[in-house]
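Risk register update: the risk of archive-format incompatibility is retired. Evidence:
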Amino acid sequence: MNPFSLAGKTALVTGANTGIGQAIALAMGRAGASVICAGRQSCAETVSQIAEAREIILDFSDPMAAGDVFANDQIDILVNNAGTIRRNAAVDFTEADWDDVLDVNLKAVFFNCQAFGRAVFERKGTGSIVNVASLLSLQGGIRVASYTAAKHGVAGITKILANEWAAKGINVNAIAPGYIVSNNTAALIKDEARNKAILERIPAGRWGEPDDIGETAVFLASPAAKYVHGAILNVDGGWLAR
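Archived output:
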């Protein structure tokens, strides 16, 4: 048996229409999973590249948006990737910019996990949750107050759910991506000074690619990670080692 195979499993990946979420969905499909691609916008492009996949439209500005999904489908793997970001100096940050990010990046993550956990327990099954955290789950960042707070919260949710659910058949872990080429980092990539400073600190000497996160998600969702619980796995080209 291939311990990295996801054959026979169904994975729900949020924010699967582009970037890291798309890469995770594609990697899950390559590993043999049937993939439900969820996004605020159509995931048709992602679905077209996976042998067995379908899309659903979910807008996590409503943190309870996915509740019925787990009741209606047997889902074995949940990947909480959907997210948003707002950038401004802390003294100018608005309540709307705070609430918009916390609703999508933190509140929805918890209630997705809760609905998934209830469904798994009701069928007396097992499952895996992979949350997408961030280096800013461990650092402070600049001009991203709500994003940093939310990603610290994702790390905490991952640990508390691992404490409660590890013995009940659900693995809960998170990936902390470093600087990955994505929609959320487009502004940094275009900023020549910031881009140069970032590259100079990364031991690997390059920005990460979405596939770097996708393959890591497959590992955490697979039998190979069956004794991995509550981990925040840095995938950062060595950034935090510097």
